[in-house]
Design a protein that fits this description.
The complex is a heterodimer of chains A (564) and B (171). Helix content of chain A is 7%, strand content 53%. With 564 residues, chain A is mainly beta. Chain A has a domain at 110-308. The radius of gyration of chain A is 26 Å and the shape is globular. Chain B has 171 residues and is an alpha/beta fold. In chain B, strands 2-1-5-4-3-6-7 form a seven-stranded mixed sheet. In chain B, helix 2 (61-81) runs parallel beside helix 5. Chain B is globular. The chains are: A mainly beta (564), B alpha/beta (171).
Chain lengths: 564, 171
Amino acid sequence: MACNIRNGFVLIVVFLLISFTFFSQEGTSNITESIHGNFQIDGQYYIEDSTIGAPKVPEKFLSNVFGNINYIKGDFSAGIRYEAYNNVRQGFDARYKGQGIVNKFARYKTDLLDITIGNIYEQFGSGLMFRTYCEPGLLYDNSLDGISLISSPKKGITLKGLAGKQRYFFENGPGIIRGFDGEINVNELFDSLFGNKKTKIIFGSSLVSKYQSDLDPNLNLPQNVATYGGRINLIRDAFNFSTEYAYKINDPSADNKFSYKSGEVIFTSISYAIKGLSFLLQLKRVDNMSFRSDRNEGLQSLLINFLPATTKPHTYSMLALNPYATQLKGEIGLMGEIQYKIKKGSLLGGKYGTELTFNFSQANGLNQIPVKDSLTAMTFYKTNYNDIGEGYYHDFYIEINKKFSKEWKATFAYSNQFYNRNIIQFGTANEGYQSLVSNIGVVDISYKYKSTGSIRLELQGLFAEKQDMITNSNLVGKGNWATALLEWTPNGNWFVAIFDQYNYGNPESSSRIHYYLGTFGYNKGSNRISLSYGKQSAGIFCVGGVCRTVPASNGLTISITSSF
Amino acid sequence: MKTLILSFLITASFSFVKIGEDLNKLPSATLKKLNGSKINSNTFSNDGKPIIISFWATWCKPCKKELDAIAENYPEWVKETGVKLIAISIDDAKTSGKVVTDVKLKGWEYEIYIDENQDFKRAMNVNNVPHTFIINGKGEIVWSHNSYSDGDEDVLYENIKALIKGEKLKH
């Protein structure tokens, strides 16, 4: 049935395309049209390697492939995305199997009315109640297959309504989602009164409801579950304040062990920024706020909302070795950042100025106080605002960014991280790991030896202050790491890099391994091809508030991206 | 099903051949300004002069390197060619609060918009950031480049100058 609908949709899109094409070929229309698209191919040839724990892959070669083609004509657009996994690469959900058109849409967008049918990507506020989005490289796609209407009946007012089901691998999930969002920009709506005021005020409110039938023989599960909430954004000169709150009615699910407790989340961000100086403070409290269109799902599947982590996202490999993701069940988090640019021409600023960043982030659990409630209530626990639980993560980070001359640039970074592996990686306090405390240092130097040629050297070290040694003898902490990267870009088109990640401090001497990797790449316009050969250590990738473990691998990786 | 896909692709390729590069107009997507109000990408204009559109993110080091490198000579570029740079941040709610602090700290004088749920990124078929486009005076996409390495800003500027002189653009 679903397949027939899909075929029918493609037929409509093709029909529209053909008719539009013929229409324009007659030369009767002045409206321009265009076709855009992109492709990405990631393939890997795997070599079994027992020293790093890289498993034997029966297919030997695995690939993730996708392509988008979008057609635009005036206010109308339509597109499809084709995905193929033969089979999906290691470390991704094995349920991505096979190939097909997983995304298709047709849209008519004007300022007054914006209608989309098909797979919809949309976000209400900061996404605490609803966000569908796609990270194709990470295989995250929770698009809503349905209809969306956005209207701006008057300047300063935006209304959004949508309904549909979410993508679930090559099908749709069982739950139906209905959502409504309204936003008022006070300065625009009351232009004559507030149009020229320095203070900008924006209000918004959302309601999102999901329906899933109750087939449970024992429990009386709520079939309709709603979340609702509001937000405000105040901006004045260098100040920016925004906060959003959402409440969810009881939503027993696999995530909360079928507790009938309600959920809530608050996310606040305050910033002050002038030239050369900035402050940012983010606060967040999440309690029982996993919201999925299938109450039995876990991992990355069928999440309706998006709970941003209030920690600094890192890109240097040692800093990102142990990344944090929001704990949907409950956490309280804080991040503060100060950035300062020492002026050009001063003693410390030098000829080009120096940028300093101080960042601190911390996340803790919420203490769950057991509640003895009746068989019909079944909330199991309660939490209090002033009752903060065990530490999940912290990161104290300092970065210095300095350009010394036209040729030389460098970044120096230091981080002290606390990482509660039991909770972050396994979601339970009883996995037997000790938390990791590590000091990490990074030096990144680049030298531009001619106008389009440069060499970059990265040196990184991770020093485990407290080993994540394990009480259970099967699990072994990894200890200290050193990493070096040398990258050569002879011109804008080519690059070559060698990378070695060395786990020299591993308590098991046989596991003190060099994970070396050589990469060669070519860029031209919007096309990029890269080839890598070597070993990659097991790592953790976090997306959509959920982390997954990518196993170690050894082999040849090819990656091609292209857009037109 | 396969026939349908095939017919779609054939139609698409015919349209592509017919359209050519000169009608490659900017798609329409709603973006957020730093003052909280909204703007549609199809209203981008620069009085008939070229526009650079640069997709970036606060967590993307090469992106910031590129925008810093351009910033050093930006007043000169504007004076000589009238070009305007529009920087599109693809930061989501996790880091979008940092867009304004980074921009102010660096003193970038670009037009800055936030593409929080990446509607414009998808419409422009951007795979990864940084991705930079040149838009000609008629609002058509005439050049694009993915990734940044030192010195790419000079190639970008050579192409802006070539575009103004009516010469062929190079990658």
